[in-house]
Amino acid sequence: MDSIISLVENHIEYAPWIIFGLLLLAGFNVPVPEDGMLFVAATFAARNPEQLPQLFAAVYLGAYLSDLICYGLGRYLGPKLSHWRLFAKIMNQDKIDRVAGYYRDYGMLTLLFGRFVPFGVRNILFLTAGLGHMNAVKFAAADLVACTLSSVVFFSVYYRYGQKIVLIVQEVNVALFVLAVSVGAYFYFKRKNAA
Asked: Rounded to whole angstroms, what are the CA distances from 50 to 12, 45, 113?
């Protein structure tokens, strides 16, 4: 992450394009943290207010298009992805079945909630939506709402509070992750015991 910050710092005039490009790579499962890009964009916007609209647009559009890329890969390449090293780790059938069950049981709330969960959960959600041939228009609309909400909230908080808020957000993200795993485990065992 430090090298990304240095790159953006040294080329602030190209920062929106750098951030946008890196986020597009995340759609192909290249490990580029969306939260990190939001932080970088917002903190640079705070230091360079004239770049604020471009930096927000870059991080917002990059995140949204990245989601659509990931969905498209799942939908159109499907099982072939498991042979690609970049996808092999997240493409095990148990994870796919579990997430598909969340979509089936909770619909778009899965996407809205999952958008705020870190640690690679987002890409699993988007790939699984594609693999399960979720309606593309519904996916794009729900993800637009979720991406808008998360981007505006995190960008605003990072812009206003900068480094001070990073530790708090990291703790909240860990708490959300633990909550998501706990809720998932609860429903898994509840369903397993009912069967």
From this structure: 11, 8, 33
Round the average pLDDT of the chain to a whole number and report it.
81
| Calpha distance 9→182 (Å, rounded) | 40
> How many CB atoms are located within 10 Å of the residue 71 CB?
24
CB atoms within 10 A of CB 75: 18
Taking CA 143 as the corner, what is the angle to CA 138 and CA 146, rounded to the nearest 5 degrees?
130
Q: Which residue has the tokens 């899965």?
A: 110
Could you give the 3-state DSSP secondary structure of residue 89? coil
Task: Select from 135, 133, 132, 131 the least CA-distant residue to 143.
Answer: 135
Q: Give the whole-angstrom CA distance, residue 130 versus residue 71.
A: 5
Q: Which residues contact 76 (CB under 8 A, 6 or more apart)?
A: 130
Q: Where are the domains of the chain?
A: 2-194
Asked if 98 and 188 count as a contact pair (C-beta separation under 8 A), the reply is yes
94 Cα distance to chain centroid: 20
Residues 76-133: tens digit of each pLDDT:
887 777 677 666 666 667 777 777 787 778 877 887 777 777 656 777 788 888 887 8
Closest CA to 181 of 129, 122, 121: 121
